[in-house]
Design goal:
The chain has one domain. By secondary structure, the protein is mainly α. The longest helix is centred in the middle third of the chain and has 16 residues.
Length: 101
């Protein structure tokens, strides 16, 4: 998707797509960086790259974000949208062409 297509999506849609890509890649740093812009920042202070299980770390970070933010972005929504769009443009693979019978 290009910038215009991504920008046309709602914040929850962008979040869903970005979270799905980051989960698939096991990119816990994406979640830590994102959380550092929220009230949950203090909860990410102790996280390091020494985490043994990236998948569990990603799920834990998502849970921390949900608990700290009540699932909303509030005043930082424009920043979150920009982060989601940037992340998706850099990391989301283009959808494969559909086969036509």
């Amino acid at each position: 998707m290009n910038f215009e297509e991504l920008d046309a999506l709602s914040t929850p849609e962008l979040q869903s797509k970005a979270f799905a890509v980051a989960r698939e890649k096991g990119d816990w740093r994406f979640f830590v960086d994102l959380m550092r812009h929220t009230g949950a920042a203090k909860d990410t202070e102790d996280l390091t790259s020494d985490l043994a299980e990236v998948g569990n770390a990603v799920e834990e970070l998502v849970g921390m974000w949900r608990q700290a933010s009540a699932g909303t972005w509030g005043d930082i929504e424009p920043l979150a949208r920009a982060e989601f769009i940037d992340y998706l443009m850099k990391n989301a693979e283009e959808e494969p062409p559909r086969l036509v019978d």
